[in-house]
Amino acid sequence: MRSRRDFLKSTVLGTGALSLTPFFNTFGATPQESGFPKRFVFIRKSNGERPNEVALPGLTAKEKALEDKKLPFEVDLRDRELPFYLRALDKHKDNLCILQGLSCMMSENGHYSFSSIMGAYKSNRNSLSGIKRATIDFELAKLFPSPFGHVELSLTGNYSAFRSGIVSGYSASGPHQRNYCYADPQTAFNELFGAVTDPGMVGTDNAMFKFLESEESFKAGVLEGYEKLKLSNHIDSLESTVARNVKLSQMAGSIAKHIPQIGKIHAAGGLNASYPEKQEAMTEILIAALVTGLTNVVTYTIDELSTPVRGLPGNEGDLISIHSIGHGGGYSGVSSDKIRENIRIGQIKQVARIVEGLKAMPEGKGTMFDNTMILYFPEGGETHHGWGFEAPYVILAGNNCKLDVAGRYFRVPYHATEGHKTIGNWYTTLLNAHGNPIKHYGDLDLEMSRKKLAQTGFIREFMA
Amino acid sequence: MSLTAAYFPAGSTRRMAIRVIFILVTLFESLPAEPERFKVDPKIANILSSYCTDCHEEGTEKGKLRLDQLEALPLDSLLEVMNRMHERVHFEEMPPKKEDQPTEDERKQLENWLAEVLHANHASKLEEKLRMPEYGNKVDHEKLFSGSYRNLPGHTPDRRWLISEFIFNAKFNRILDFKMQTTIDGKSQSVVGSTNRSVNLTNPFLLPTHSGVRYYDTATLESGHLLTMHTNAKQASAYLIKKRNGLPVTAAILAAQFEHERILATRESHLRTNIEELLRDLFKEKHEGMRPAFVPTQRSPIEPPDKNFDVRRPANEEIDKIITTVRKHAKDGLDREKLILLCEEEWFYHGVSERVIMIRVTWLRGYLEEAMRRWKVSPVKSPSPTPSDLDAIRTGLLKHRQHGDTYAAIISKCMAEWSDELRRERERTVIPDETFAKLIDELFIRIMEREPTPKEKSDYIALTKDYLLKLGNELTVDRLFQTLILRSEFVYRQEFGEGEADEHGRKMLSPRDASYALAYALTDSSPDKELQEAARNGKLVTREDYRREVERMLKVQSQYYLIDEAVGADSLTNIPIRKLRFFREFFGYPAMLPIFKDNKRFGGDYGRTFTRFVTEADMLVEFILKQDRNVFERLLTTEEFYVFHSGDNTAMAASSGLIQEIHGYFKDEDWRNFNDDDLKAHIPFLKEHPMPGLNLDAIGKVGGRSNQLKIFKDMMTNYSERLGSGLAVTAPFSTVFGVANAAQTRTGAKLGGAEVAKSFNLDLKSWNYPTSQPARMEHRRGILTHPAWLIAFAANTQTDPVRRGKWIREKLLAGSIPDVPVTVDAVIPEDHHQTLRQRLEKKTEAEYCWQCHVYMNPLGTTFEMYDDFGRYRIEEFLEHPDNLVRKMPDKGSPQDDLRDLYKTLPVNATGHLEGTGDPELDGDVRDAIDLVERLGKSSKVRQSIIRHAFRYFMGRNEVLSDSKTLIDADQAYLQSGGSFDAVIVSLLTSDSFIYRKPAN
Predict the structure, then answer these.
(1) Separation of alpha carbons A283 and B812, rounded Å
(2) By residue range, what is the domain housing residue B84?
(3) Cβ contact A319–B230 (<8 Å)
(4) Which of A365, B350, B529, B589 lies 20 to 30 Å (CA to CA) from residue B237?
């Protein structure tokens, strides 16, 4: 059973926000050697990511042959031209890694992967019972505790309108635990920075908890034994929540310095905001959440098949369905492939903005980005109806990153061949490098199992 | 370390005294003087010396435990050792059976002494452990059913019981008034248990996933629960305030607030529509000069050449706004670009964001004419402002408009002022205490399902006033909702005794608590009307009252329940859900759902099949429960199963019959050479006998995959393959891509997953389909041979005899198996020249392993007659690339077996049964079928299931004082011809259920 002290140790921010992360537990977190936590940003995109579009355009004939045959090789990408959609990262090639050939057959794939792409399991559509374990982002968040523990953002919708408010997320804090997420910038802003923008609400929260505490204490006074313990736990939880709010007030000053400005168009869910406007606002919030130290791990669903894309450069007049372009439908004379590329360009611009925002923040002898990794990846493999043979990852890694990935274009052996790596190996690598000694994270690939190919453990080539 | 709390018994035997003196001397020499020292009671020392220390002393210590130097141990270590001793002595695990045993009195003395010392130091762990599910079987089975303890008075402690994930859903569905109707067998039916409500809630009370009883009264609310519940409370509260269904007092208190919101909405709407005219009227010639300087937006570089208006259009509301503006500015002869610029300018003055203007302008450049021609603007019903509203609007505009303001900025300033004014007006309104009292009543009834006590009422009125000072009416009501949802009473079930205690100090459950206890025993919902009335009217105070209500509830079949959302919307039952759920959880077959299996090894599309396995296992359990005869035996040994069946025999016969009729009609025709016209000639027949997937209106009109003639021929080809070779009846499935199966589920959805037949070794092509099910299946006996159970107790790529054996030992034979020691690498080694059984035996044959595996392997290996998909087999594939005999295609139709073929070795499914206590049943067994048939005849198995049923309905482990309850339930089962309803009635009318005593 967790003690009150443990509880206080694990969380220090307001209930409205923290309650979004059920059962988040930061026990066992190890102190950071550098004094600075590592940060992780997971950016999920829909509609797949085609490996040939992520491939470097200037590969030599020999490299191209390997790429086309999906054979393993690597090149230093720092002196290479990047694919067109990644050009916004030109300035950050030293931190960039393109990881090709990872498979994700053990996750859901197809149109949607739900939480499975980050948990390496089949999620049985989106059922709670299908959530088999804490997703990789939550596992990392346990290693780098923070007031919020973990923040999830999403820009999703119902094809014609964006979702807004607090809705079900895709990350999981543990088996059968579906996370909440903030579905629009204003809600994210309110929930994350509410302690500063609305301190009165925190005060009345405390009044409520204190009332409940006195009420439960009265009941507990007439009980004995195990029954007393049950109410005593209830009271402890209430007390802890109040104490945490006090800590929140103490942090308010430093949070206030970094609060982003959110346009009025985002008020009340921002139903009239265009997709680029939403992206920009979410990016600012994401950066601020990391800079203020409210969280060290953010998962951001930057689009989903149902996200209504309005205002895309080149198709400003169209309401684009990502699902439709996945099936080859063009808009206003612009081909689906070009629209897909334009969407990725817009998203990579946001990735670059996050890199630059963190590089602008000093930390130790460097910047906050030095301790940050950003992972941009498809939720469902290689294409619109992904199978999971390949899931390309675009990775930005700071200088103090514990993995040797920066500057590398790296293609692992193809699925179900000797030496192949899965997302399970990749996530194991992330965990092992950051202090979780797990032997293998995630379910095994069944074709690899059938062929009796080794498939557990970290990716040796990336261990620094 | 202080020893002041330790226990100091008196007296000593000579041997022990010498040892103690030695230890004390040693201690006194080595430690500073302390006031008191721990001593072993001499009587106890004698017992230890006689039965324990021969093994647990220097040089011979077993389990690295020495009991000859207890007094020398530091307190922490001492208490740890004593806790271990306490557990072993209590469960009679020590001394080992082959050694001399203490008398019952000696054992009792030792146990009492250990308990006293541990309690005195607040360190006893046994009581807490005894509450845990994994300790359920530790209570001696023979003692429980021997009858020697049936005179002990049974009771359950007064308790709070944390709500389950299911009760959480039911509570919120009730509070939020969320109800679901589903068409079942053609009728609209009420279904409870869905979470598909419009409010996002996270369920913090999820139960563990192991098989067996999952819902115990031991869980307590932790911080994580509270935090999640706080978010849930906020979401639910916001929804309730918005809807206000059935909350008249809440609605009355918030009436002013909603009226003010209406006023604000009216003014805002009027301003948005008319602000330009209003400003022009108020500011006259100054108006245009006060507008912000217009800056046209950047043009998109791409001219949209495609004019497919229907595909490209924005949302309707947005087009309405665009076209309204265009029509306002359109004049004959006005240049197109000029018109668009005028619109843009207006939007700019209104403060529309640059990006939205850009989107609108780009769209207009592509679709202006078409939009003007085709689009009908939906009329906007704007509320009419009153004269006082108009005055306020004019005053506000004059007051707030500044040079360069956009219209949106002006509106925003006006709205802020009015909102503030109206809020102050509300704050001046005094709400009388009586109204608050009614509000508290209303919220208590909605959330707690009862009126508040006088103390609660006065406390909550005071709290309401406090909230009002800080928050205003709406937020106060919101906060009150939240407060009630966060009370312990909401998240815990209350089960307390009331009234006069009997001679044993027991009280009967209070009628209200009894009504909930009974309701939650059989359903997840609050008491129904009859139970509520019984509780209110003093008709829930005798055992007979309980019996009447339980028997009534067990008969109800008018309510449908969603069994498992993970299985799908067709996972439904109309027997009380907790009756079915007991066996579902006891057998644990739903655990197959998250097990990821390889399509290739399955030989088909496992992904479309796996939920069907669980559904059909549920249907089988429901079928047997509805018949309610020899329930346990039939669950364990039935030869009849559902395989690709909806549960509706008539409908399945019709679906299958349709195929026969179509085949019979066309079989003598030259259908292979039909052209479109030939097929059209048979439209009258096909209208009466609709062939799945065939669209009669599209014959001859569409090509490719939708070519109807091709679909017809493909379907007929497959029908002929199946029925042309003399098969009488075929399963109603389709092999044609894109064509759904002929059969439907009971909710009218297409019945999928025909490939479940593969796990029953049925060849879909030649399967003489039994339309009436459950039907006899070869090589199967009961749930333990159902593919769902076999997959649930298997790994991804191989069987799992150890887990299967462990399940039987613990669930059916009332045995206990220790957890795998942390030092053990519990992995079966790879060797592609041996069967899994051979490899397992090699791994577990060492004495250290076998001391536990002897209780599991001989049971679990009998199931090696099935593979990890549940297929019966006599040969085991040695699945390894080196052993590949034949590579099979990777794709095919449902009726094809796509498994690769490997070298094989014969399966050895023999085993050994020990532990039924019946020499007629114990002994070597031929295979799993032999095993389950013996288990089905065993009294101990029957009693073990009853013990689990006890835990399920009581939420706790049984103890010796529950002996009568268990024996009565067993007898009820036997005397009723194997009725599970009789077991439930017996348990829910037992002393163990009815009587409560204060918890220790």
Answers:
(1) 57
(2) 14-129
(3) no
(4) B529
User: Alpha helices of B861-994 — where are they, by DSSP H?
Assistant: 928-937, 939-954, 963-975, 980-988, 991-994
**Which ranges in B845-880 belong to alpha helices (H)?**
847-853, 857-860
CB A440 within 8 A of CB A136: no
User: b/e string for B551-587 if b means 16 or more Cβ within 10 A?
Assistant: eebbeeeebbbbbbbbbbebbbbbbbbbbbbbbbbbb
- Taking the C-alpha atoms of residue B475 and residue A416, their distance in angstroms, rounded to an integer, is 58
d(CA A39, CA A137): 10
Chain B residues closer than 8 Å to A332 by CB: 302, 304-306, 312, 366
User: Quick one: closest CA in B to A217, which residue?
Assistant: B488
- Quick: pLDDT tens for A176-229: 878 888 999 999 998 888 878 888 787 888 889 889 988 888 777 666 667 777
pLDDT tens per residue across span A240-296: 778 767 777 777 888 889 999 999 889 888 888 899 999 999 999 999 999 998 899
Looking at residue B528, the DSSP 8-state letter turns out to be -
Domain boundary (B129, B160, B184) is at B129
Q: How far apart are CA B99 and CA B53, in angstroms?
A: 12
Dist CA B396 CA B414 (whole Å): 5
CA of B490 to nearest chain A CA: how many angstroms apart? 12
- Pairwise CA distance, residues B221 & B443, whole Å: 23
Q: Do B441 and B307 reside in the same domain of the chain?
A: yes
- Please give the sequence-ordered ranges of beta strands (E in DSSP) within A219-314, or none if there are none: 297-301, 308-312
Identify which of B901, B899, B897 has the alpha carbon closest to the alpha carbon of residue B885. Answer: B901
Residues B788 and B614: their CA atoms lie apart, in Å, by 6
Q: Which helix (H) or strand (E) holds A35?
A: none
Write out the two tokens for A396. Answer: 């930005």
CB within 8 A of B455, min separation 6: which ones?
Answer: none
The nearest CA of chain B is from the CA of A406 a distance in Å of 34
Residue B532 lies in a domain: no
Residues β-bridged to residue A408: A76, A97
- Pick from B523, B560, B532: nearest CA to B169: B523
- End-to-end alpha carbon distance in chain B: 29
H helix or E strand, kind and range, residue A39: strand A39-45
B467 contacts on A by Cβ (under 8 Å): 204, 207
- Written as six digits, the tokens of A179 are 């996370």
Q: Are residues B360 and B306 in the same domain?
A: yes
Residues A61-106: tens digit of each pLDDT: 999 999 999 999 999 999 999 999 999 999 999 999 999 999 999 9
The domain made up of A4-190+275-462 has a fold known as: Alkaline Phosphatase, subunit A (3.40.720)
Cβ(B888)–Cβ(B898) below 8 Å: yes
Query: Which pTM was predicted?
Result: 0.84
- Two tokens, residue B852: 């536990």
Q: How far is B146 from chain A (nearest CA, A)?
A: 30
List chain B residues with CB under 8 Å of A314: 300-302
In angstroms, the CA B858 to CA B461 distance is 67
Asked whether the bond before B95 is cis by omega within 30 degrees of 0, the reply is yes
Determine the Cα–Cα distance for residues B951 and A375; give it in Å rounded to an integer: 48
CA–chain centroid gap for B367, Å, is 51
Residue spans of the domains in chain A: they are 4-190+275-462
Closest residue in chain B to residue A220, using alpha carbons only = B488
Measure CB to CB from residue B302 to each of A16, A130, A334 and give the nearest one: A334
The reply to whether B611 and B468 lie within a common domain is no
